[in-house]
Amino acid sequence: xxxxxxxxxxxESRFALIRAMRDWFGVAGFIEVDTPLLLRLxxxxxxxxxxxxxxxxxxxxxxxxxxxxxxxxxxKKLLAIGFKKIFSLGKVFRDQESFGGTHNPEFTMVxxxxxxxxFYSLMDDVENLCDFLQTKINQKQKIKFTRVHMRDLWRxxxxxxxxxxxxxxxxxxxxxxxxxxxxxxxxxxxxxxRIFLNEIExxxxxxxxxxxxxxxxxxxxxxxxxxxxxxxAERVEVYINGLEIANGFSELTDxxxxxxxxxxxxxxxVDLGKDIFAIDxxxxxxxGLMPPSAGIALGVDRLIQVLLGCKxxxxxxxxxxxxxF
Length: 325
Hints:
The chain is an alpha+beta fold and 325 residues long.
């Protein structure tokens, strides 16, 4: 009980901020949806691990499911049947996560989607939501957001024309030139993050809010290619004082391309020694039925941590894993 009693005021602010989030989405015309936490077929993101759960039915037959890492698949199925503006605010789970700092195996995420929109709408949403929340807690010095194209960020910090490094081989050579020792079989994403995490992200700590957009097409994840910036995808990530708080896309709506990417992710998971899962065919079908849409997932605990000036995510959680296990 010591942890809880010491954090009572922070937790009161947490609960008020979560209530305010729901208020903002309601006023903005979003419908709150609830989706299954327990799945048969989890997501296939190469660097995420789903938490397995074994359970039994009334006939004592055993099943294996997985706690979701995101409500994304289910929410896109809702978009495919005609929902337009939806959000989900609840718990998600990640296996093989650290305890404390900026991570917890169980955390709160708000994820939202807009039909007939693109990732610029998401950037507006993040700025407006954060402004609303800061007003609710009477924060006088509000976070100022700057929108930065990935190409401009690499020009500023690495001094290169990033257009020349959108393929694996040039990025491999760049890593070597900058003193890294990458393996020959590392993916483009691995090579990108060698430089980004060591030479760029630490320098964002004093930059306030950064909305980083247009990721390399090789790192498109579930986003669609940019129609105007060849070699880039309409993917956006949001940082506040160097801490990543959100990741979103102008969503891919090509079922054939979605299947190709999922197959590629399966292959990457094999390379990383992770479990692989069958492709969720309903999800692939839903992607092909969706209207042009945009969606983003925001880490609620991290945002609250930043807004309240807490150094450790444990400080804003009721009972973090470090206290439970």
